[in-house]
Amino acid sequence: MKKIFALILAVLFCLSGIALADDAKPELHMGTNANFPPYEYHEYVDDVDTIVGIDAEIAAAVCDYLGYELVIDDMEFGAIITAVQTGKIDFGMAGMTVTEERLESVNFSATYATGIQAIIVPEGSDIASADDLFVEGKNYIIGVQESTTGDLYCTWDIEDEGLGTVDRYKNGADAVQALVTGKVDCVVIDNEPAKAFVAANQGLVILETAYAVEDYAIAISKDNEELLEKINGALVALTEDGTIPAIIEKYIPAEEAAE
Amino acid sequence: MSEWFDSIRAQFILNFIEKSRWRYLLTGLFNTLKITFFAVLIGIALGTVIAIVRSTADRNLPLMRRGPGRSVLKCFDGVCRLYLTVVRGTPVVIQLMIFYYVIFASSRSSVLIAIISFGLNSAAYVAEVVRGGIMSVDIGQTEAGRSLGFTYVQTMWLIVVPQALKNVLPALANEFIVLLKETSVAGYVAIKDLTKGGDIIRGATYSPFMPLIAVALIYLILVIFFSWLVGKLERRLRSSDH
Lengths: 259, 242
Prior knowledge:
The complex is a heterodimer.
Chain A: H1 2-15, E1 27-32, E2 35-36, E3 40-45, E4 48-52, H2 54-66, E5 69-74, H3 77-86, E6 91-92, H4 100-105, E7 107-108, E8 113-122, E9 140-145, H5 149-159, E10 164-169, H6 172-181, E11 186-190, H7 191-200, E12 204-206, E13 212-216, E14 219-220, H8 225-240, H9 243-251, H10 254-257
Parallel strand pairs in A: 1-5, 1-6, 9-10, 9-11
Antiparallel strand pairs in A: 2-3, 3-4, 6-14, 7-14, 8-11, 8-12, 8-13
Helix pairs in contact in A: 2-8, 2-9
Chain B: H1 2-17, H2 22-60, H3 68-89, H4 92-103, H5 110-136, H6 139-147, H7 152-182, H8 194-205, H9 209-238
């Protein structure tokens, strides 16, 4: 009796290792950190937890155009580039900026959107512009999301120069939470999520002067030239026929973007 | 062959030498050790006190007459039980985040918050371990102490608890080692501990191999060192047993 039971268990364990059945359409895996409104965030659509946002919709449009099934993998922002390099995901799209260091590891598609690094401060703060962060002796504590360009810029420009400290949080919302309770003096993060966070919390203000302006693009493995060309082709076609501008307009209405 | 070696060397330089990235690991190491050391102190001190209360209650409550003494003991015992249940029933990460975001919401000393949080967490586990140790000391010791005229507290403190701690020293050493590795979640609340140092390097260089292996190796060396230290302590204590 025991032997039969053990045999059944062994068979069940083996069966659980069998791979999933083949899909009708080939899949493309997109890596993102779905904690970055309005580019990607979680929302319940028809009672199903879905990842929505500018990046999610553009990716869906691109995959439709190319004839693929889109699968979105939610992961830590800092893990996306490595996942693209190792082939765990086919491309990374997470409001990600093109930087020299990142280009050493992966290829980037054409720019599909522009981002601005904004500074959020509490109302009535000493900090009135980006330059104030560099004043000798002030030693501000800056909250950032780990591994984003906000993190990298602040680390290079401020922490490494000994002008202040950088507190790295797992996601933007945690950094803003720390700002609300007074643990950090300001938060440096992309403009659009900054607006979403400021709208959701009282007593926060985005500074007029931006910290930096940058280009968002899609990260693709250096080994996958074919996919890079296909995606660039798709981006061009979808921009010309107005799909991408419409998606961006839906989330970032033009009057706001002009501010 | 030399190509592979060159690439390893290049990786090493990229991850640790360039821009002095090894400094992140050094700061992280200091913070991890600081948090672990003070948290262990709090844990053992508080844990022993709780253990004494709990074991006193377990042994004596059934035998005591109704009265103020009994009520007080029952009250303390209840508080301790509640504390143990709550702290052992929630993950340490959640406890840390509650301390950081809710209880000490406006504080900027995150290392201090971590010490308190991990210390209180560790105290719960140490309490159970030490309670086992106290229960394992022969009841004759307590009886002898009381017969000699020591008060209950004196008997506990001077006779029973030292023997109990000696018995559970391996388990306490284990707790220290577990705590050392548990502090690796401190990065959740932006504390620059050893694991976070590795994360920062990984985020800047996109090559996970070297930072992760380096961090793992450092934890391993620390654990081996402390295990050896505790082994020495145990042997010295055991020499008085003959």
